[in-house]
């Protein structure tokens, strides 16, 4: 393949611009803010689950408390009724009296047990409420942190996007000047060689694979026409002669 030495030199500029675009793309995808936002999002999802289960637990406890309080009321009503019967002197037989007094004593113990249960439930509700408030407060903090990190990410993306836009424009201009067949070869070499399609020959070394060319190959290059498009014998990339080639 033939191409003017200017067209060949432009390939190096094209390769630089492609390398810059790749670097910018890596930076864009590797911004630490992506991982940070991901972590915040995961923590927020955990907290949402925690809140949902705490709210379910609170509902449960509310129902348990209402039930226990209802039980306390029932026992209290029975105690009151028994006391009234006692106070009214309605029970005269010593056996009935004893039965009634023992029932009052047992109901009173029952009432005290049920009141313990109510207190225990209330404590558990307080604990759940404390945990719920903590989780809700952390979600508020996360929401604020996400806003800050998102703004930082967007600013970084904007800057990188601007740089990439400039490099893309420049690349289009350079590529527009290249002959189609040379550009096509460059594109194929890029696909085959990890994004680097053309490399400079610098002090007898291919800058693409970093191997020094042997004397035979260097002599062949010296003898080649300047318009001849050369390839590195090692990596097959387009090898561009420059003033620093050491020929
Ligand atoms: Zn090479």
What can you see in these coordinates?
With 247 residues, the chain is mainly alpha-helical. Helix content is 76%, strand content 5%. Strand 1 and strand 2 (205-206) form a beta hairpin. The structure holds zinc ion (ZN).
Number of DSSP-assigned strands: 4
- The number of distinct helices, counting runs of at least 4 residues, comes to 5
Q: What strand line-up does the widest sheet have?
A: 2-1-4-3
Shape summary: rod-shaped
What is the terminal separation in angstroms? 21 Å
Q: Secondary-structure element sequence?
A: HHHHEEHEE
The stretches of 5 or more residues where confidence is low (pLDDT under 50) are none
Q: For the report, how would you describe the main beta sheet?
A: 4 strands, mixed
Overall mean pLDDT score?
96
The amount of beta strand, in percent, is 5-15%
Give the helix level as a range of percent.
Answer: over 70%
Bound molecules: zinc ion
Q: What structural category do the secondary elements indicate?
A: mainly alpha
Radius of gyration: 42 Å
Give structural attributes.
single chain; 247 residues; mainly alpha; 4-stranded mixed beta sheet; 5 helices; rod-shaped; binds zinc ion
What is the topological layout?
Layout: H1 5-29, H2 32-87, H3 94-177, H4 180-192, E1 198-202, E2 205-206, H5 215-223, E3 230-231, E4 238-241
Parallel strand pairs: 1-4
Antiparallel strand pairs: 1-2, 3-4
The structure holds zinc ion.
Zinc ion (ZN) binds at residues 199, 206, 208-209, 211, 232, 234-235, 237.
């Amino acid at each position: 393949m033939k191409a003017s030495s200017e067209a060949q030199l432009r390939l190096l500029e094209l390769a630089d611009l492609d390398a810059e675009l790749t670097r910018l793309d890596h930076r864009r995808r590797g911004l630490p803010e992506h991982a940070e936002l991901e972590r915040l999002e995961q923590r927020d999802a955990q907290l949402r689950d925690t809140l949902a289960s705490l709210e379910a637990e609170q509902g449960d406890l509310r129902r348990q408390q209402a039930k226990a309080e209802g039980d306390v009321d029932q026992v209290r009503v029975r105690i009151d009724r028994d006391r009234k019967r006692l106070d009214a002197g309605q029970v005269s037989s010593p056996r009935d009296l004893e039965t009634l007094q023992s029932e009052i004593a047992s109901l009173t113990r029952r009432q005290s047990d049920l009141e313990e249960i109510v207190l225990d439930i209330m404590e558990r509700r307080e604990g759940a409420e404390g945990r719920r408030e903590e989780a809700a407060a952390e979600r508020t903090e996360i929401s604020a942190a996400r806003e800050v990190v998102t703004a930082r990410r967007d600013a970084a993306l904007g800057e990188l996007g601007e740089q990439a836009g400039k490099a893309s424009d420049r690349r289009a201009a350079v590529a527009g000047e290249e002959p189609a067949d040379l550009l096509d070869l460059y594109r194929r070499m890029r696909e085959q060689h990890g994004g680097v399609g053309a490399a400079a020959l610098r002090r007898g070394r291919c800058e693409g694979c970093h191997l020094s060319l042997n004397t035979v190959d260097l002599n062949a290059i010296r003898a080649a026409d300047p318009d001849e498009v050369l390839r590195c014998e090692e990596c097959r990339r387009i090898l561009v002669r420059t003033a620093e080639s050491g020929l």
